Amino acid sequence: MAKIKNPEFETMSNSYKSVKKLGEGGAGSVYEVTDQDSKTFALKILSAGVVSTDKVKRFKNEMDFLSKNRHDNIVTVLDKGFRIDEEKKIPFYVMPLYSQTLRTLITNKIPSEKVLPYFTQILDGVEALHLKGVWHRDLKPENVLHDENTYRLLIADLGVAHFEEENLHTNIETKPNSRLANFEYAAPEQRRKGVSVDSKADIYALGLMLNEMFTGDVLQGTGHKTIATVAPNYSYLDDLVTSMVQQSPDNRPNSIDSIKQELIGRQNDFIQRQKISQLEKTVVPTSEVDDILIAEPVKIVDVDYDNGSLIFKLNHVVVNTQWFYMFRDPKVYFQYIQGAHPQNFSFQGNTASIRANQHDAPQIAETFPKFLENTNREYKSKKEWELKEQERINRQTLQADIERKKKEMEIKQSVLSKIKF
User: Fold this and answer.
1) Which residues contact 408 (CB under 8 A, 6 or more apart)?
2) Fewer Cβ neighbours under 10 Å: the N or C end of the chain?
């Protein structure tokens, strides 16, 4: 990229001044910048010298997706804009500045007991991309940023990523002869022209990175340095790595979740499985309750009194039978007017009503919100317990399955060792 003559980058809400160049790739550069309040950020800008319709589209897709990101292990774009350079309109975006990458950690050697907690963060970030229909296709230690204050790892640089249709800022056609990844971490299918590349390419790169985080070497062919030789307590990971770097994508794990299940089965209890929240449309842990009645508890939005009936308008049309059961049969004692027990309320649509004379109506109106608050509290507690219990059962099942396979293998090896022919 040509040297920036004017070190100012303007957006609708801020301006940034270049401090120094942090790095340069084939399609753009990253700068350390300061804003109007002297706060420090990183700024990524497309190179004017390589601007093409395809590269601008890819950059806009990356910028748009990361602007909407809310996942802890994916970089978030904080600001974005355009700059006129060499008479071209060049897009750029601003993100938090991280002074280290996974490459820094590998170079400094990661203690073996810290590798999986770090690797799990990478899995979480990549899985969040996959659940959103995004395949990174250029995973490598340099594209995993490290926040040394919080020990958090974040996936960055989606410049060659594949986005599902609903995530696209603009459509891009990947040409058959395009090579979209760093060669050292590229899956076999990425090195061949005209071959389909999907999320399995990311799993291949993750396998290389897991092995490298332990050994310090990038796995190349047979006879490579194994995890067992440097961290015997984690020797079971060698089989996982082998499955992840299979030549054929069909022979690799089907998803990040299947990798996590294998690790959970080995009693790595810090690992969290993830899902798409149906409420927020974001990626959240499977242990997080995804329920509208918990996210937005039932409450009164209006009250009316008509023809001897006290009518409460609610913020929801409540159709959840479990919530109704808890409302009508509270586990705590309430003082209430005779005839105004929770069982006496009728629900229809988004209203709850009860027959009440003009003298009792004010007191009933004070009691009904307490009924709602208690039901909301009981319902939340119950749903959280149910999900936690299901999570516990799932983990026990995975761990029992691993133990069963280990015993089967031990028996097999014992029998074969006694057979002579």
Assistant:
1) none
2) C
